[in-house]
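step 4 of 6: structure.
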Amino acid sequence: MIRKTRRKRTWFAAAVIASGSLFATALPANAETGVSATQIKLGITLPLTGAASPGYNKIGNAMNAYFKYVNDNGGVYGRKVTLIQKDDMYTPQLAIAKTNELILKDKVFALVGPLGTANFTATHKSVNLAKRGVPSLFLNTGFSGFANKKNYPTSFMILPSYAMEAKVVAQFLKESHAGKKLGLVYQNDEFGIDALGAFTAAGVKFDVSVPYTSGSQSAATAQTWVSQLAAGGAQVVVFFGVTSATAPLLAVAAGAKYAPQWILGSVGADPLTLQALGVPVAVLNGAQTPAGNPSPNDTSDEYVKQFQEINTKYNTGVAFDDYVLQGMNLGLMTVQALRAAGQNLTRRGLIRAMETKGSTFASVAYSPLGYSKTSNVGHTGYFMAVMGPTGDRKPLGGSVTLYTTDSGSGPVVKSTFKRPAMPAKGLPTNS
Amino acid sequence: MRKKIALFILLGWVLLIIGDRVDELRVYQGAQMAMYTIALASIVLLTGYSGQVSLGNGAMMAVGGYGAALTLNNLGSPIWFAFLMAVVCAALFGALLGTAAARLSGPYLAGTTLALAVGLPAIANQFKFLGGEPGLLFDVGFPPERFGEEFTQYKWFFWISTFIALIALFMTSNILSSRFGRTWRGIRGHSLAAELCGVHSSRMKILAFTVSSALAGLAGAVLAMNISLVAPGAYALSLSFALVTGAVLAGISSLPGVVFGAFILVAIPEIADALAGRLGDADKLNHYLPGLIVSILLILSVIYAPNGPGENLRKHLRKKPAR
C-alpha cells in the first residue's frame, strides 16, 4: 500500500515537472517569428539566375552588405539583421515555392524587397501573406494595383508606380516631343499594361505599339520589335521593360542603324547591366529616362558617397550601379522601419511603424514617400534625365525638376520637396 | 471490396489526424505528396500496366490545370466542378493523343510525348486568355469558416488533395484489378498473343492513354490548387522527368509504390537543401542539386532496381523463409 502511494507520488511529481518544463519551453523569450534576442531574420525572393537576373541578382548582396555594415555597428537595438535570399528565376511558381520556404521553413520575420509584379501577385495570393500578417516591405515593383491597401494590408511599395512613371513621361512627351511619331515597346503583363493604361488616360497615342512577353526577350525577338518600329516610322520610342530586354532592343537597333529618340523606363536603363549583357554603353548616349534616384556615379550625392564606401568594404569587387544603389537603399529603409517598430519587435508593430512613421524615412530617391494609415504607396515622383556616352545619368536641363503625381487621375505637378538628409555615417538613429 | 473501402477510409482518417499534428510546412508537403501520388498513379497505369512509355505527363497535367483554372475563373463554378473539368479536358486530350500514340511504340512514343512535354506548356505563352508566362491565378478560396481561425489554407489544400488522391487511388486500383487491367497487362506482356485472344489492342491502348491522362489532369488541377496558380513554368519539362523518376522508384508496375515515389519527390528538395547547406554556397547549389539528385536516382534505380526498390525488397523478403 505504502509502495503504491509512493509510486503515485513519484508519478505525480514527474508529471508536474514534465508539464512544467514543457510549459517553460513553450514560452520563448520573444514570441515573434524570426526575431530572437540576438537576431532578426528577413527574406527576399528575386531572380538570381535566368534571363531576367542580370542586375537584379546584385540587389540581395547589396542589401546584405548594408546589413553587415549595420551589424558591425551595433545592429538594430543590439540584434543582428540577416537576409535570406532565394532564387525565383523571375517565375511566379518558383516565387511561391521559395516564399513558402522562407515563411514556413526559414521562419523569417518579414519579406523585404520581393521582386516582380506577376511574382508578388501570385505569392501574395498563394502564400496568403495578408492573412498570415507577414509584413512585405518595399515591393520591388511599380504595379499600381499593390497600392490597394484593403487587398494588400501588410505590403508596402517603394517604387513610384508604373502608372505614375507613365504619367510623368506622357507630360514630357507632350511638352518636348509634340508632333513626332511615337512608338512603344512594353512588357505584356501588369508592368507594361499599367503604364499603357496611364498613357491612354493621359491622351498619348502611339503610332506603333509592340508588346512582348516576359521571358521571351532575345536578339531574335528584338529584331521583330525593331522592324515594326522602323516600318511604322517611330521617331520617339518609349520602352517599358527590364534591362535584359533593353539590351537586345538597343543592340539590334544600333546594328540596323535605326536611331530614334529613346525614352527608357526607369526599370530597364542600367548602363552597367547593359554593358555586362554585351551592349556598348555608347548606344545609351542621348537616351532620355525618367529617374527617381541620383546617378550611381554622382559622388557629390551624400547617399551615393556613403553607399559606395560601404560597397567597397562589404561588397568587395562588385561594381556600384543602380541595382547596388537600390539594394543599399532598401537596406537603409529596412533598418529605419525595424528601428521605428521599437525594441519589442512584432509584425504588427512593424506595420504600424510603417504606417505612422514610414513617410519620414531617409531614402536616396528625390520624391516624397506616401506611407500612411490609408496608403502603402512608396515614392511618388520622377524627374527626367538624359544619359551620356558613358551611361552617366544627368538631370535634363542641368538640375533636378521633380514631378509628383498619383496612380489615378490626379495631375502631374512640379514639386519642391526636399528629401531628408542621409543619417550620419549611413546609420539610422530613428525610433 | 468492402475491406478495400474500409482500408481507404481508415487511411484517410489516419492522414487527417497526422495533418492535425504536424506543422504547416509538413501539411503543405503532404498536399504536394498527394498531388504526386495521383500523377505517379497515371504513369503506373500507362507504362506499368499497358506498357506505353510516356515522358509527357507534365503536359497532361498542364491540360488539366488550365482546364480547371479556366472553368473556375470564367464560370465561377464550385471547386469540385473545376476538378471534374480538369479530368474531362485531360481525358479528351488523352484520347486524341492516344489515337495517334496507338500507332507508335517504344522510343517513338517516348519521343512524341517528350515533344509534347516540351511544347505544350509553352503554348500558353502564345494565347492571352491562358495568361502568358505569369499564368492564371487559381483561387479555390478560404477554408469554410466553421473550421475555425486556426484552420489554415494549406490544411484545407491538404484535406482536398488527400481526399482526391484517395478516391483516385481507389478507382485506379479497381480499374487495374478489373478486366481492363488484366487486358492491359496482357497487351504489355505480348501484344500479338493478346490480339489472338480477341483483344482489340489499339482500342485498349487508347483507353489506357485516356484514363492515364484523366488522372494526370486531375493531378495538374491539384498542383494548381496547391500553388494557387497555373503557369507554363509549373508544368515544365523537369516535372515530367521528376515524375518518371518517381514512377521508376515506385516500381513502375506497383500501385502502392506510388506513395513511396511521391514521398521521394517531395523529399528531394529537402535533401538538396540540406546538402547545399553543408557544401556551402547554398544559393547556387540549391538551384542545380534537385535536378542532379533526380538524375542520379533515376540512373541508380535503372541499374540496381529496374522494377523499383519495392520490388527488390519484396523479392528479398520472399527469399528469406527459404533460407
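step 5 of 6: annotate
 - The first strand of chain B starts at residue 136 and ends at 137.
 - Chain B has one domain: 2-236.
step 6 of 6: archive
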